[in-house]
Design brief:
Low-confidence stretches: none
CATH architecture: Orthogonal Bundle
Largest sheet: none
CATH topology: Globin-like
CATH superfamily: Globins
Number of domains: 1
Number of strands: 0
Shape: globular
Helix content: 55-70%
Bound molecules: protoporphyrin IX containing FE
Distance between the termini: 48 Å
CATH class: Mainly Alpha
Length: 159
């Protein structure tokens, strides 16, 4: 096999975790560090979120409502929703210790040049809180989870 064929093959091969319908992206190193937070210990948080089923419904609602939101919807429009739904689910599930591997990119490069403001982040947190409440997650568990996400602010907010 020539070098060129190998390169072409590599380009055409989807990443191992990709779902059908995801757009191709440049290769990157997969690492649990990319998730931006260490997982909770024990099963308590996973249970509080209703396991993988509950996390899936929360992420689906978060993605759905973020894309159509009047404040932040525009930032998402041109981005791959299939991939975002998958990687966000993996990230939340990993951090909540509900039995997933995070295979997405790290937070800084994922949000580079999106121009996300503190106001946008606040809005996304509100949408997430609504989704968690709809799933019956206690406020104590919601706040514990939000505290894990809080330090990611420095990688997400650019202005
Ligand atoms: C702590 C809060 C946040 C977390 C945990 C988070 C998490 C993620 C994850 C896991 C990805 C996918 C990475 C990948 O494709 O490999 C992503 C991408 C993205 N995020 Fe966030 N995000 C946060 C805040 C925000 C905010 C506030 C906005 C906009 C209002 C935003 C907009 C986006 C967009 C548009 C993408 C897609 C980028 C692309 O297609 O290259 N994110 N985010």
């Amino acid at each position: 096999m020539t070098m060129l064929t190998a390169l072409l093959l590599l380009q055409a091969t989807p990443l191992p975790h990709a779902m059908p319908g995801e757009e191709a992206i440049d290769p990157y190193e997969v690492s649990p560090r990319n998730a931006g937070a260490t997982p909770f210990e024990g099963e308590g948080m996973a249970k509080a979120f209703g396991g993988q089923g509950g996390i899936r419904r929360i992420v689906d609602r978060l993605v759905e409502d973020s894309y159509k939101d009047l404040v932040i919807g525009e930032i998402f429009q041109s981005h791959d929703r299939v991939r975002l739904s998958r990687t966000l689910f993996e990230q939340f599930c990993f951090i909540l210790n509900a039995g997933c591997v995070y295979s997405g990119r790290e937070m800084k490069s994922s949000h580079k040049d999106l121009g996300v403001t503190q106001r946008d982040l606040n809005r996304m947190v509100e949408i997430l809180q609504r989704a968690m409440t709809a799933e019956g997650v206690s406020f104590q568990a919601q706040n514990r989870f939000l505290s894990k996400l809080a330090p990611m602010r420095r990688d997400v907010v650019e202005r």
